[in-house]
Amino acid sequence: MLSSSGRLLTLRGFSTTHRAAFIGKFTQQLAATKPKRHVVETLNVPIGLEKAPEVTDNQGDMRSVTQKFKDFMDRDKNRLRQKELEKEIAKSGMYDLYTYRNTKGKLFNSPPAYWKSEKALYFPNFHGEDLTSSKPRPTLDTLLGKISVVRVFTSQMGDKSSQGFFKTSEANYLSPEGYTRFLELYPKAQIIDINITENATKALFVKMSKSNLAKMNHKDRTDKYFIVPRKTIPLDIREQIKLDNTYGGFIYVLDPSMKIRWAVCGDAEDKEKNMLWRTVRGLHKELAQAVEKSKLDEENAEEEPQKN
């Protein structure tokens, strides 16, 4: 039987052991959340999702209370969630701002040429309000079937920097008059805005500004300006399309099947701006060739029974 002093020593030893284990685990978590220095890379390989998006993707947390409780009690899911939180903490607002300033918004270098359709990967589906309605809807319905120049931003800095790509010798395509000219030059294309709201306060501010935003846009673009909550876009999705800085402005050129054919970020440089619109013209040409091929296939299919 242990004396009182012996029990005290045992308790102290137990306490010391647990304290050391806690400090060790806490140190490991701090190391895991320490952000790595951002490396600017050229997009030599396609970015995006392997699987084609679906209309139900990224609607936010749709779980029931019962399912949330089950997930809370699930160790494996908790480990995965902890890893996600560590990544989110590592890429805090201050880290994003530091990276944005250090790179001057050029978080990656755009590819030297647009990617071929057979190699390109998919842009995700998001859910958000447009300027005509307060009811969230999928972006997929708007993106499918047309060539899309998608502008994505969270901050005013990202909004402003990405605008430069649309100020061409022809017109400012983001203005009401300029978009009319855009449609004349690129009748199979559209410009999409995705304003990602970082928190509830910003979401409320943007929603209160919807009428002013509608006046600033061409009437055909009011249902193509989406307000999407950041919390509905999983971290792994953001990473796969390089949308991992809250201060950057990003542009993606999508083909009618929602494949990312080219991407750029940061301020508009002449070389990149020229490549953007060369990509849009190239996709127009692809689409025209596909339509022509489809017509020829139909004609050949009609002639086959007559030969027999």
UniProtKB/TrEMBL annotation:
GO terms for cellular component: mitochondrial inner membrane. GO terms for biological process: mitochondrial proton-transporting ATP synthase complex assembly. It holds the Pfam family ATP-synt_10. InterPro entries: ATP10. It comes from the Eukaryota. This is CYFA0S11e01574g1_1. It comes from Cyberlindnera fabianii.
